[in-house]
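Thread: "does anyone have the structure for this chain?"

Original post by V.I.:
We have the sequence but no experimental structure in hand. Need at least a predicted one for the grant figures.
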Amino acid sequence: MNGLLSVYFKGCRSVEEFQCLNRIEEGTYGVVYRAKDKKTDEIVALKRLKMEKEKEGFPITSLREINTILKAQHPNIVTVREIVVGSNMDKIYIVMNYVEHDLKSLMETMKQPFLPVIVLPEINVWVGLRRDPVKLPPSSPVLRDRLEQLERQRERERKLREQQQKEQREQVERERRAEERRKEREARREVNE
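Reply from O.Q.:
Generated one for you, C-alpha cells below.
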C-alpha cells in the first residue's frame, strides 16, 4: 500500500517518505509529530488531520485551516510546505516547518510575563502579532486556536491568583489567631502574677 493514495492525489507525496521522530502535541484538529524528510534530511512538523468522524469526505474544518494558513503568509506564522497522504483516506497530513518551541509551552514555562522588548525567535509570534498583526478572519482556526490558548492561560493565571489570595488570607488569619492566643497567655500570666 506504499503511497497508494498518492496515485489518487496526484502531486501529493506519501507520508512514508518521512521518518516519524516523536509525537509533539494533540490539538483540536489533529496530532502533530516531529519528523524527518527522508529525501532532504530536514526536520519538519507533520500534522495528521483528525478524520475519524468524517463520513462525508474531507472535514471542512481541516480545509479551512489549510486555506487560512496558506493565505496567511507572514514571518510569524508557520509555513505549510505540502500535503502528504497515508495508506488510506483517514490519513492526511499537513507538512509544516518545524519550530522548536510553541507559544503554549513558552507561556507555561515562563516565570514572568512576556515583555515587548524580548525578540527571541521562539516568541516572535507573541511579540510580532502585537507589532505587526496578521489580518485573519475571526473564524480562522489559527486565530481561534491562539485565542483558546490565551484564554486557557488567563484561566490558569486567574486560578493561581485566587489560590495565592486564599493562602494569603489563611496565613493572615493564622497569624491573627496566634497573636490573639499570645495576648491571652500574656493576660493570664499578668493575672496570675
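V.I.: this helps a lot. The longest helix spans residues 141-192.
O.Q.: and Residues 1-9, 117-134 have pLDDT under 50 and may be disordered.
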